[in-house]
Amino acid sequence: MAIHLSEYSESWVGDFMGVATTLVDALDGHGGQGIEHIGATSVPGMVARPIIDIAVVAAPLALDEACEALAPLGYVPGGDDQEGEGFRKLNTPTSGVLHSLTVFDEGSPLLHASVAARQVLMNSPELVAEFSGYKRGLAFTGAIDVDEYRRAKAPMFQKVLREAGMDEDALTSLAASF
Q1: Which residues contact residue 30 at a Cβ distance below 8 angstroms, ignoring those fewer than 6 apart?
Q2: What is the rounded CA–CA span in Å between residue 15 and residue 167?
Q3: Residue 8 and residue 37 in contact, taking contact as beta carbons nearer than 8 Å
Q4: Which of 32, 34, 50, 108 is close enough to 86 for a disulfide, judged by CB 3.0 to 4.6 Å?
C-alpha cells in the first residue's frame, strides 16, 4: 500500500486540541499527567501522513490505569506488538479525527525522544525541509508500506535526535522503536 503524505495543515492543531480535550476529561483522576501532540503533524511546515500522533503521559505506575480509563471512549490495546517498555499503543475509534494514540509512562525514553525531536524540528526550518524532502522521496516510490516507511525514516529521525543532544547509546536503545 502506498504512503499518502500531505503538506502541513494548520487544522492539525485544532484536530489535536479537540481529541486532547476529550482525553483529558476521561483521564481525570486516572493517572493521566498530560497530553502531547507529537510526530510530524505537530511540526509546522512538515510533510506528514495526515494522522495526528497523540501521546498520553501517565504518572509512574499508572500506565495500565490510564489505558483502562480510555477504554470507554473506544481506545483498546493494539496487541502484543503494540507495547514496549514504558508505552502502550491503543487502537483508536474509527469515527472522528484520524489519529494514533500511545500512552507513555512519564519516564519513557521514546516519549522524551518524540518530544525532543518535535522541539528540534520546530526550531529548524532547514531540518524540516530536509526531512520533508526525504519523506517525499520515500513515498514517491509507491511500493513502500507503513512499516517499511517507518524503518526508512529512522536515519533522519536519528539525525534530528543527535541535534537534540541524544548520545549514540540512547539512539541505539531506541532504534527498534523508530
Answers
A1: 62, 65, 66, 68, 69
A2: 34
A3: no
A4: 108
- Phi then psi for residue 89, to 5 deg, are -85, 135
pLDDT tens track for 35-64: 999 999 999 999 999 999 999 999 988 999
Q: Which residues contact 143 (CB under 8 A, 6 or more apart)?
A: 2
Quick check: 144 and 134 in contact, CB under 8 A?
A: no
- Of the pLDDT bands very low, low, confident and very high (cuts 50, 70, 90), residue 80 is low
Per-residue DSSP letters for 83-143?
Answer: EETTEEEEEPPSSSS-EEEEEEETT-HHHHHHHHHHHHHHT-HHHHHHHHHHHHHHHHTS-
> What are 119-128's contacts with CB under 8 Å, separation 24+?
119/164, 120/160, 120/161, 120/163, 120/164, 121/43, 121/46, 121/160, 122/43, 122/44, 124/163, 125/45, 127/159, 127/160, 127/163, 128/43, 128/44, 128/45, 128/46
d(CA 76, CA 68): 8
Average pLDDT score, the chain: 90
